[in-house]
Every structure is written in C-alpha cells, then in structure tokens.
C-alpha cells in the first residue's frame, strides 16, 4: 500500500517536472547548431555585441522573444528565416529555449592550478564573457537604475522570468535596444513613462553601470 502511494507520487512528480520545463534541452542542443554561428557555440554572443549573449537567459523570456520574432512583433531581419514555422515550430521554440537557459558562462577565468593543461584552459576560456567597461558615470547610472528599473530587472540587473537581465550582456546590443525602444521598433512596458524620459547622459550612465554589473 505504502509502496503504491509512493509510486503514484513519483509518477506525478516526474510528469510535473516535465510539464514545468516543457522543453527538452537534449533536443534543443541539436537545434542550437543553427544559432551558434551568430550567437556563439557557448551562447556568449558575437560580432562585438551585434549578436546578443543568450546563455542563461530566463526560459520564459526566451520563449516570448522567439515568438515575437516569429510574429514580427519584434523585428529581427538577420534572424527571421531561422524562426519561421518550418524551421522553428512551437516545440522547437521550447526545446531550444530549455537548452539555452541552462548554458552557463563565467565573468572571469576560474583559478586553476599550474598543472592544468593548455587544452582545459582553452575550453574554460571559451566559457568566459567579460564585458569591457563602457564610458559614463556608473554611480549615476546606478541611481537612475535603482529608482526606475530595479523593481523589474532585479536589484543587481539579474533579471526575472519575464524581464531580461541587463548585467552580463553586450553593451553594443543594449545600446541598440535603447535606440529601438525610443523609435518604437522594440517593445517595452510603458515606454513613454519608463524609457523615453531618460536623457542621453542617463542612458550612457546606465550602460556604464550595466558594464560593471558582472565584475
Ligand atoms: C544570422 C544571425 C543569427 C542567427 C543564425 C540567429 N540569431 Fe538570434 N539574434 C540575431 C540578432 C542580430 C539579434 C539581435 C536583434 C536585435 O538587435 O534586436 C538576435 C537576438 C536573439 C534573441 C533575443 C535576445 C535578447 O536578449 O532579447 C534570441 C532569444 C535569439 N536571438 C535566439 C536565437 C536562436 C534560438 C537562434 C537559432 C534558432 C538564433 N537566435 C539564430 C542574429 C541571429
Ligand atoms: C515594469 C517592468 C519594467 C521596468 C520598470 C523596466 N523594464 Fe526594461 N524591460 C522590461 C521587460 C518586460 C522587457 C522585455 C520586453 C520584451 O521584449 O518583451 C524589458 C527590456 C529592456 C531592455 C532590452 C534588454 C534586452 O536584453 O533586450 C532594456 C535595455 C531595458 N529594458 C532597460 C530598462 C531600463 C533602463 C529601465 C529603467 C529606466 C527599465 N528597463 C525599466 C520590464 C521593465
């Protein structure tokens, strides 16, 4: 009897775990092969920030952005052919997102004893994404951020399920997102109240702040 109850609980637990993640990271790994030339094999981004870092972005956010690219609510010309239904169906969106959300990057090379060989060091270095310090006053940026952004993007820019992290992301990419939000080509909640009142120097200071968040 007890065994029966335990078995039912286990089956419920397993189906629940699958329903929660909805996507299968192992299948997502195969799909990611077409994303890697632009977003990097480790999801670190590329092109000096033309291609955003994807590694570790929240599952919900990834799914919502891929859907927005498909419906062209968010315009992304280089990526559009990869998101059409034939290339990336509903299940593939979930699978590739499940894979990407589990990718991990470091902000610096881990300490390794001298005995570690060159190849292991090389592999570790590929998983490091260091964001160069951007010009601007990071302290002033932090103040603007805490006043108007932290409640959604997190106290340290770490993000929340539907709000992207702003730390650990390429600055050139974030700069473009500001420009797109200001010209209504990228969606943002209540842009008139939240983003459009920012001055150019506020934005520069915010970018300086974002660039040091992962230090
Ligand atoms: C030809 C290059 C290219 C390929 C291939 C590509 N992307 Fe992208 N992707 C981009 C560009 C460029 C952007 C940034 C668009 C912008 O500036 O708003 C982007 C943005 C994204 C974003 C939004 C990130 C964020 O922080 O909001 C996601 C998610 C994404 N890509 C996922 C994928 C996935 C998954 C694949 C593979 C199925 C893929 N991309 C393939 C070029 C590419
Ligand atoms: C009410 C919650 C909320 C507040 C407050 C908020 N954001 Fe956002 N932000 C979001 C959401 C949600 C998105 C993703 C929008 C989408 O594409 O669906 C976003 C996206 C962004 C992006 C694009 C990031 C990327 O990776 O593509 C930037 C840049 C940004 N916000 C900056 C800010 C700044 C700066 C502030 C404060 C002045 C701020 N946000 C305040 C919710 C918020």
Automatic annotation (TrEMBL):
Signal peptide: 1-19
Cytochrome c domain segment(s): 23-104, 136-214
PANTHER family in the cross-refs: CBB3-TYPE CYTOCHROME C OXIDASE SUBUNIT FIXP, CYTOCHROME C4
Protein name, UniProt field: Cytochrome c domain-containing protein
GO molecular function term, any single one: electron transfer activity
Keyword line: Electron transport, Heme, Iron, Metal-binding, Signal, Transport
Taxonomy, superkingdom: Bacteria
Listed PROSITE patterns: CYTC (PS51007)
Organism: Magnetovibrio blakemorei
InterPro entries cross-referenced by the UniProt entry: Cyt_c-like_dom, Cyt_c-like_dom_sf, Cytochrome_c_Oxidase_Subunit
Pfam families per UniProt: Cytochrom_C
Keyword Heme: yes
């Amino acid at each position: 009897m007890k065994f029966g109850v335990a078995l039912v609980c286990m089956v419920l637990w397993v189906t629940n775990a699958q329903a929660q993640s909805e996507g299968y990271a192992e299948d997502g790994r195969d799909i990611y092969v077409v994303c890697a030339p632009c977003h990097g094999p480790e999801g670190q981004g590329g092109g000096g920030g033309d291609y955003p870092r994807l590694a570790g972005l929240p599952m919900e956010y990834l799914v919502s952005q891929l859907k927005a690219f498909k419906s062209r609510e968010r315009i992304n010309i280089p990526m559009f052919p990869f998101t059409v239904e034939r290339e990336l169906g509903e299940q593939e969106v979930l699978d590739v997102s499940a894979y990407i959300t589990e990718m991990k990057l470091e902000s610096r090379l881990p300490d390794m004893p001298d005995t570690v060989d060159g190849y292991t060091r090389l592999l570790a270095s590929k998983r490091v994404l260091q964001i160069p310090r951007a010009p601007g006053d990071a302290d002033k940026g932090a103040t603007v951020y805490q006043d108007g952004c932290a409640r959604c993007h997190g106290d340290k820019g770490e993000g929340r399920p539907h709000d992207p992290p702003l730390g650990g992301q390429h600055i050139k990419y974030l700069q473009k997102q500001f420009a797109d939000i200001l010209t209504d080509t990228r969606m943002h909640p209540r842009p008139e109240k939240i983003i459009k009142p920012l001055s150019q120097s506020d934005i520069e200071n915010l970018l300086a702040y974002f660039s040091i968040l992962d230090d």
